[in-house]
Design goal:
By secondary structure, the chain is of the alpha+beta class. The protein has one domain (5-63). The chain is 26% helix and 20% strand. The chain contains two helices and four strands. It has helices spanning 30-40, 53-58, and strands spanning 12-15, 20-23, 45-47, 62-63. Strands 3-1-2-4 form a four-stranded mixed beta sheet. Strand 1 (12-15) and strand 2 (20-23) form a beta hairpin. The chain is globular and about 25 Å long. The two termini are 18 Å apart.
C-alpha cells in the first residue's frame, strides 16, 4: 500500500475518534485500506513515536480487527 505523505514513515496509524490503530504494513483488505487512506487525509490521524503497537496500546489504542 502506498502511504500518505504525512505518514509515510509510520507503520501504525491511529484514529483519534475511535482510539483504533491500523497496521498499515499488514493490511490487505481493500475496505480497510480505503479507511486508512481516508483517515490519513483527515485531521483525526495520529502517528506514534516510537512507531510500535506497544506505544499505541500505551496511549489507549486497540488494534483494528
Amino acid at each position: 500500500m502506498e502511504r500518505n505523505g504525512r505518514f509515510e514513515h509510520f507503520r501504525f496509524l491511529g484514529d483519534k475518534r475511535t482510539q483504533v490503530v491500523y497496521d498499515v504494513d499488514e493490511t490487505t483488505d481493500e475496505e480497510t485500506m480505503a479507511k486508512i487512506t481516508e483517515l490519513a487525509e483527515s485531521p483525526f490521524a495520529l502517528g506514534f513515536g516510537p512507531d510500535t503497537l506497544a506505544e499505541a496500546r500505551n496511549r489507549g489504542y486497540r488494534l483494528a480487527e
